[in-house]
Amino acid sequence: MKKTAIILGASGLTGSLLLNQLIADDRYDSIKVFTRKSLGKQPSKVHEFVGDILNLDKFKKHFTGNEVYVCIGTTAKKTPDKALYHEIDFGIPVAAAQLCVENHIETFLVVSAMGANVKSRIFYNRTKGEMEQKVLSKNIPNTYILRPSFIGGNREEHRPGEKIGMVIAKFIQPMMVGSLKKYRIIEAETIARAMIYLANKKPATKLVLSDGIETFGSA
Q1: pLDDT tens for residues 100-126?
Q2: Domain ranges within the chain, ordered by starting residue
Q3: Which of 6, 38, 97, 151 could form a disulfide with 68 if both were Cys (CB 3.0 to 4.6 A apart)?
Q4: What is the pTM of this model?
Q5: What CATH architecture applies to the domain 3-217?
Q6: Is 179 exposed, middle or buried (0-12, 13-18, 19+ CB in 10 A)?
Q7: CA–CA gap between residue 1 and residue 91 (Å, rounded)
Q8: Please, where are the H alpha helices in the chain?
């Protein structure tokens, strides 16, 4: 039986690659994309719902399917207003998880961050940690939280600080073995593949660190 996937964040690096992979995957005959702006022309199996995704509950009647993939995320540079930042990185994933509960969707996947920690003094990491905690409290049967390290790939936007970090990470990557493997750069393409693998194979683990994402994405 063919499936319907829901994507939030399909315009971003990981989300766009995920969309392409799902389009090519014969297990899916429908992909619903909830987005603030249209992605442009897409194959017939892609159905866009354009509007204010900060108020995701307004899309409730259309938010139906088998799996939900959340690749939403912003940066301090793009969103300096902390209240808005929290609405995006915390509010959207949590609202999507709540709609899964209300619409009986049993598989939910979200991209978080390696430093996610509800007790962190760093606002970004604390927000991600709070998001994870709230999502898990929804008790969606097949919940997967992915915590990637530096994400590699071709971005449209210019992130000089991140670019410097990537250069350093690539230089020391050969030395990252054993417990340090989770700090290696991981390609966005691999994260997308891992999400689809998790959604379909449904392993017991709920929290997937970067080295685990690499393993699942290469399976």
Answers
A1: 999 999 999 999 999 999 999 999 999
A2: 3-217
A3: 6
A4: 0.89
A5: 3-Layer(aba) Sandwich (3.40)
A6: exposed
A7: 32
A8: 13-24, 82-86, 92-102, 123-137, 160-172, 188-201, 210-217
